[in-house]
Structure prediction request, 575 residues.
Amino acid sequence: MATPAICIQNLTKDFAVGMRGMKLRAVEDLCLEVGDNEIFGLLGPNGSGKSTTIKIILGLLEASTGNCEIYGKPSKLVDARRSVGFLPEAPYFYRYLTGRELVRYYARICMVARAEIDAAVDSVIKLVGMTEAADRRVGTYSKGMLQRIGLAQSLVHDPQLVILDEPTAGVDPLGSAAIAEIVRELKRRGKTILLSSHLLAQIEGLCDRVAILHRGKLVREGLVDDLVQEKDAESLVVQGLNDEGRAAVEAEIKAQGGRLARVERPRLSLDAYFLKEVHQREIEHVTQQEGGEEL
Amino acid sequence: MNITDSFTRIRLIAGTTFLEAVRQKFFNSLLLISIALVASSTFFQQFDFGTGELKFITDFGFGALFFFGSILSITATTQLFFNEMENRTALTMLAKPVYKLEFLAGKFLGAHLLMLCFTLVITLVLSGILYWREMVLLERLGNELTSNVSLIRYGDVFLFGFLQWMKFGIIAAFTLFVASFSNTNLYTIVVSFFMLIICQLQYIVRDTYSGMEAGWERILVLGLGLIFPNFQLFNIGDQLVFDVEKAPAVSTVLQITGYGAVYSIAFVLLAQVNFRRREI
Prediction:
């Protein structure tokens, strides 16, 4: 059996609060396994223990009890982090560096071989779609661009596991869709992605599996489809049916021992609708511009 | 831990820390004020002319170097550390294969590099002013002097600057130590200034110790004398620049340098002990 990317066993984290050292339990008896080449979503409301769990995985915090391993190595070892890339929530970087200099700096921190640095930097900048803005100062970047350059710095040393903390928080739907596409591309390249978010609509179409945390405890874990599907109902999407036909279908369902639970019109999510409309306008705009140039 | 890789990472973190520091308005303002103060020392006309004037300019310059250097060392180190914490760039950095000690050492060296820059500029300005006044004086006294003599040993100005820089290293290191367990900038700055005062007056403890009888009090005083470095050791300005006979031996300078280096390293290592357990 392949070594899991992340293996968490009976993890508990207590924080001492105040002068008397009162214990605040942030994570309680958490058991979790993230397989290789999987997109795994860590979901939960604010204060549910997502960030604490991520910090323990990254070795930034020590667990009070329990174990956490990355590809079989204890996560508290610096060596375990060689295979990890991390994008924090709302990242802030040295504003006076250009995007390219920043990614290059982190590549050198991660000891990417000198001969490979230029190629590695160019490759990740291209992957995150920042080629045009790479030579601008980070201080001039929009929030979406900061997320993208943050993603680039997390990938520059070619880690096998990528951890993204709220990667689309504060980013517009177009930017979110672009980040989601990058995450899918990373999976195609064989990477494992752990992402935490409370923007569930974006996670739903992206993750293979999710875990839901609440007050530091694992509430649910499993494949997205398994968790959200109604097991005892199916839906038929029908087009071009008149009232008579519909009555006949209903009668047939009844005759077969079924029950028509509800009738509703299929609908796009607002996210998908927005993206479709903007995308369409964008194509029209580009076509018009090209037409104008030809004239 | 691969030592070569470790040094590379420390160098990279120190370089970024230094670049960030020299872009701070505070550093540039303090540097300008210090230069202006050192330069203004020539305009204090109530003092006697002759070598008395040069001595005054030297003392004034050394005083400005120590005073502003201490302020800069404490505030810059504090700001550089807490900037990383508050902006969470430390989070991005420490999520990489970087040891916390490397991070702290990089921060320390970045701040120390900043102080080197500050010290060099001030000593250069001071030397320039001394040279200018010396030329004026030599021209005036030219007929009275029998041979070409230099009134000032400029190497000593830089030697004093170097020793002050070593002292700033200790200040930066103990500021980093305080910051490693502190939650706010203000607390770090206040405690560090208290430590600076204690270190300046530490010789009083040593004097007390020499007059005490054996017992636990003497052990306590000895302990305090060891914990807090004695900054008076670095104040050898009176032995430098003018008086050839009083000039300190090379071995003394090396001992003071070693003393500064040992305390700097010790405080950075102590900071690491706290920082290991700190939530980032």
